[in-house]
Write a structure and sequence with these properties.
Helices cover 36% and strands 21% of the residues. By secondary structure, it is an alpha/beta fold. The two termini are 35 Å apart. It has 2 domains: 107 residues, Four Helix Bundle (Hemerythrin (Met), subunit A) (Up-down Bundle); 189 residues, Rossmann fold, CATH 3.40.50. The strands form 4 sheets. The protein has a 7-stranded mixed beta sheet, sandwiched between helices. Bound molecules: 5-S-methyl-1-O-phosphono-5-thio-D-ribulose (MRU). 5-S-methyl-1-O-phosphono-5-thio-D-ribulose binds next to helix 2 and strand 9.
């Protein structure tokens, strides 16, 4: 099952806000539909929004829009993952936007399978691996990065267990990562985000593998809560790996200069449909945080495992 597909000059995306209860493909007919799907997180995860953005440029091309203007608007949809700008620029610089977007679609899956093969080398038989957010098939076209590593290890016959952090406020760990692991029959448990340190202290975690929204000078930006997981892992000498394709690399900028997306207060005030804080509560809702390089054991890429820069 692919996270998205292109048919009849339209982009169809699994509406991830409805998972795990319903699998419904959302139709995008215009580039503005794609922007809206990215902003509302019907499609999310750095590689997935990159490929969706590429098809957004194709939709703008089909309807004869000003491509530079459409591309700039698409890049602005979410600020932290570098894949958006990477994908838009790649399609804008190509001879045929649709061919290029389809090439990126196919490449994504091959890249993730290579990340999986490289990453499974660091997974031992019997490991329990903690992951945060969803860096799975749903965050890409298919297969996933961090969860791709776990898929590959499982497919090689390694006996692994997975712990998914819930990932408040939008619960990508609970809704998406647990769902993916269950579909693969990989033994999985769900824990609230604040349990990670305790589980590590009790010796229940052998390794951490997470994804990335941007790898830049000095560290990695990933889903809010990743920094606390990395700090706890360092304290308990647990290897902390990031799995990321080269399309997530930004070798120009310091990670500390990257804009961290702030999202709507209601994501925190409400849990599902229930309000959990008094009306009018002021909120901090950063969507990502920064893991400094010294907390990262290695970055698993399609070309091998490298040290952070
Ligand atoms: O806000 P999201 O759900 O788009 O955040 C996703 C993450 O932080 C992922 O870990 C990251 O994009 C890597 S996905 C392969």
């Amino acid at each position: 099952m692919k996270t998205m597909y292109w048919k009849d000059n339209k982009l169809f995306l699994i509406d991830q806000t409805l998972l795990p209860d319903e699998i419904i493909y959302h139709e995008c007919k215009t580039y503005k539909d794609v922007i809206n799907a990215i902003k509302t997180m019907k499609v999310r995860g750095a590689p997935a929004i990159g490929v969706a953005a590429a098809f957004g440029v194709v939709l703008a091309d089909i309807s004869g829009e000003d491509l530079l203007k459409a591309g700039a608007e698409i890049k602005d949809a979410r600020p932290t993952a570098v894949n958006l700008a990477w994908a838009v620029d790649r399609v804008l610089n190509s001879k045929s936007p649709l061919d290029e977007a389809l090439r990126m679609y196919d490449e994504d899956v091959k890249t993730n399978m290579a990340i999986g093969r490289n990453g499974s080398e660091i997974i031992d038989d019997g490991d329990t691996i903690l992951t945060h957010c969803n860096a799975g098939a749903l965050a890409c076209v298919d297969y996933g990065t961090a969860l791709g590593v776990l898929r590959a290890a499982h497919d090689e016959g390694k006996n692994i267990k997975v712990i998914c952090d819930e990932t408040r406020p939008l619960c990508q760990g609970a809704r998406l990562s647990v769902f993916e692991m269950q579909q693969e029959n990989i033994p999985v448990k769900l824990a609230v985000d604040s349990a990670a340190g305790h589980l590590m202290q009790k010796g229940m975690v052998n390794k951490v593998v997470v994804g990335a929204d941007r790898v830049a000078k000095g560290g990695v930006a990933n889903k809010i809560g990743s920094l606390m997981v990395a700090l706890a892992a360092k304290r308990f000498n647990i290897p902390f790996y990031v799995a990321a394709p080269k399309s997530t690399f930004d070798s120009e900028n310091s990670i500390y200069d990257v804009e961290i997306e702030e999202r709507d207060a209601d994501e925190v005030i409400y849990f599902g449909n229930s309000r959990v804080a008094p009306e009018g509560t002021e909120i901090e809702n950063p969507a990502f945080d920064i893991i400094p390089s010294d907390l990262i054991t290695g970055i698993i890429t399609e070309d091998g495992i490298i040290k952070p820069f």
